[in-house]
Amino acid sequence: MSYKHKIKLEIEKILNGTKTNVQVEKTKLKEHGDVATNVAMVLAKELKKNPFEIANDIKAKIENLKGLISKVEVAKPGFINIVVDNLALAESLIEVHSQKDKFGYAPSKSKEKVLVEYVSANPTGDLHIGHGRQAAIGDSLANVLIADGYDVYKEFYINDHGEQMTRLKDDARIKYWELKENKKSDKIDFEYQITIDKYIPLLVNEPGTTADNIGEKLKERILNDQKSLLGKCNVKFDNWFSETSLHTEGKAKDVLEKLKESGFTYEHEGALWFKAKEFKDTRDRVLIRSDGRPTYLLADIAYHINKIERKNKKLITVWGADHHGQEISLKGGLHALGYDDSSLEIVFVQLVSLKKEGQEVKMSKRAGTVVNTEEVLNEVGSDAFRYFLVESHPNNRMVFDLDLAKKQDKDNPVYYIQYAHARCCSIFRQITNPTGSSEERNVSTVTEKELSKWFEEYAKTPEIFMNLFAVNKEEYEATKTLILKILDFPEEISLSSKSRSPGRIGNYLKELATDFHQFYTVCRVLSKDIKILKARLGLTWATKITIANGLKILGINAPESM
RNA sequence: GCGCCCGUAGCUCAGUGGAUAGAGCAACCGCCUUCUAAGCGGUCGGUCGGACGUUCGAGUCGUCUCGGGCGCGCCA
Prior knowledge:
By secondary structure, the protein is of the alpha/beta class. It has helices at residues 3-14, 39-47, 51-62, 86-99, 129-147, 163-181, 193-203, 214-232, 243-248, 251-262, 296-309, 327-336, 373-380, 382-391, 402-406, 413-432, 438-441, 448-458, 463-466, 473-487, 489-498, 503-522, 530-554; strands spanning 24-26, 35-37, 69-75, 79-84, 113-117, 151-158, 239-242, 265-268, 271-274, 285-288, 314-320, 344-349, 352-356, 359-361, 398-401.
């Protein structure tokens, strides 16, 4: 349990009876202690008492909690400022070591099933950078939800049915004919020109390819390429769900029948319409075209109902912001069939533009400036790709700075964070595999055997870490700042999960790296004083654990050396 | 016209209704005989687009307004 939570519980104990939610927050200024609570001001109204008096009452009751709180002060309107006892910090560090790669993770409190759907591109060509961002955000969001204790299932919805697919397959068939017959058709330009030029020459001479199956083969090939491309940046799905299967298995038809029964449909000009306006949409929407083919909307409703039937309590669907117009009709469809549409949450990811050599290039299909995910990924590498695309909030449009992402120095936050991790590891290499004698390096000698014994102690003996604090003021400040930052991690995961903004983890890691680099500069870990050495090695390892756990959520590597 | 999203330092962005709004980059000045200088410290930089309101307290909540992006297909 975190020191913050312990303090919160103590205050709640004192206030038993009042229902007020006690908030214990980290302070911004050192003069305000380590943490503060505004509970006196919140209570002032309820109790009709002066907040300052309430604060002083609480102060009197908590200031003698040895081992948890070392100092309490009441400030201006009624803030209660608390300095945490070093022992509480030492005890918290034990938890980092005992939980290891699960540190920060919520104890699977709910095991509530959540299905996160993301990317879900048409298998009609290359993924553009917007899909890349959806992949980075969707995957990291799913990971952060896992860390927050949910039972998460990652899914890609393959839009392999409908008008776009029909057009692609038509293009494929004609191009196939052109290549086979070595003739030119009267088709002037293909809708999917780039895709056709890229794939059809590769497929045309494959054994078994015919005019009839070239379209299907093309689809499979594109899908595989999308899969392997996403795999290259650690985006892997539990399931690839085919839209076509909804039709072949009759699920779309079942939903259609139910919608008809619900009375929210009508026929008009040969098509079947859904009364979306009754659900506050701007207009009604077509479910079945006049030629009898179903629209994406029908399939989408059927797909989401299928998700609910698979016992998912929460559905999170990640869409590009250009699709927000579809939200109301989809939710309306669920609502019309009696499903609770509040379980469906759509995260809209805003567009990406690219900055190259200082110039911003806007994505435009017409201008031919669509930025390809593969090109960017190959150019900057998976780690930078994941970091930059997830960093800012999904609701914000973002500018991807290609030149910055390619930089391999301190300007690039990815390297800055990874370097902090590598530095931690490097210190341990020095201990177990030193260059030069320990005398020269002025370090106590530690055998491998001793070191592994220390690791056992780190997970259960808080007293070890008390030696971190018996140092000069500068060292003390740097050390304490780092510890407090490490201990923020579980809360950071929770906030990131609740606000559906996995990019928070990236910002957190940047701060953690800063605090570690500062600690490293001020405090020499490899010390002659064995007690200090032992304590600082433990803290360094706790930092390493935290950075690695955070990077894992973002799908970014944590290198041991750079 | 209607709907969704965004306006915070020159640039890219943080900022769970709390105290004096923060980083990084860019610009300038410093720091390597010892754990990786892929690092650290310092200086410069702001009417949080604007107005009104709610509150003990607003960058954060509400209404309005200005600016920008996206959407309003029998495409997805």
